Amino acid sequence: MKQRKKKRVYVQRTRINGAIKAPKVRTINSAGEQLGILPIEEALRVAEQEQLDLVEVAPDADPPVCRIMDHGKYIFEKRKKTKKSKVKTSVLKEIKLRPKIGQHDYDFKSRHVERFLKDGDKVKATIMFRGREMDFTERGRDLLLRLAADHKDYSVVERMPKLEGRNMIMILAPNKK
Predict the structure, then answer these.
(1) 83, 111, 138 — which closes off a domain?
(2) Cβ–Cβ contacts within 10 Å for residue 172, how many?
(3) Which range of residues forms the domain containing residue 106?
(4) Closest by Cα among 113, 158, 163, 110 to 139
(5) In angstroms, what is the C-alpha Rg of the chain?
(6) pLDDT tens across 1-60, in order?
(7) What is the rounded distance in angstroms from the CA atom of residue 138 to the CA atom of residue 171?
(8) Alpha helices in 6-70 (DSSP H)
(9) Where residue 79 sits, what CATH number does that domain have?
(10) Dihedral of the alpha carbons of 58, 64, 70, 75, in degrees to the nearest 10
(11) Does residue 125 sit in the same domain as residue 156?
C-alpha cells in the first residue's frame, strides 16, 4: 500500500535569544506593554528574568521589534494562522447523463454529485441527446429537475436546465452551510 506524504506548513525562521544580531531592539514584554528601545543584552536579561524567550517578531523594522514570549507557543499560533488563511477554491465538476439512463446508473451518478457537493465543488450536469432523442428534450429536463430535487438538502440550483445545441445543462452549487 502506498503511503501518502504529509504536507508540511513551513514558517519563516524566526530568530530567538542569542540569534538576534541587532545591537538595539524595540522590546515588548509578555503583557504586551512596550519597554522601549533597549540594548540586546538588557532585553535578553529581562526575558531571562521572566523565564521566557526573546523572539524577533518584526526583523525588517528599524530597530527590529522583539517580544518576550514562549517561542513554542508563538510558532504554533503562526502555523495555525497560515493554515486558516488558505481558502479552498470551488471547482466545477461535470456529470454526463443520457435521457434513457437506467435506475442503477442514475443512482451511481447521483452519489458522485452528492460527494462533489459535500466537498464544496459546483456540479455541471449535462444530458447529451443523439439522433431522435432531440424530440424528447422534456424527458431530459425532468431528469435534471429530479437530480436537483434529490440533492436539494445540500445544494442550490445555480442555473436551471437549458438546451444548448444537443446538450441540456444545469449547474448545482453547494449550500453555504
Answers:
(1) 83
(2) 25
(3) 92-174
(4) 163
(5) 29
(6) 566 666 665 545 777 787 788 888 888 888 888 888 888 888 888 888 888 888 888 888
(7) 17
(8) 40-49
(9) 3.10.20.80
(10) 30
(11) yes
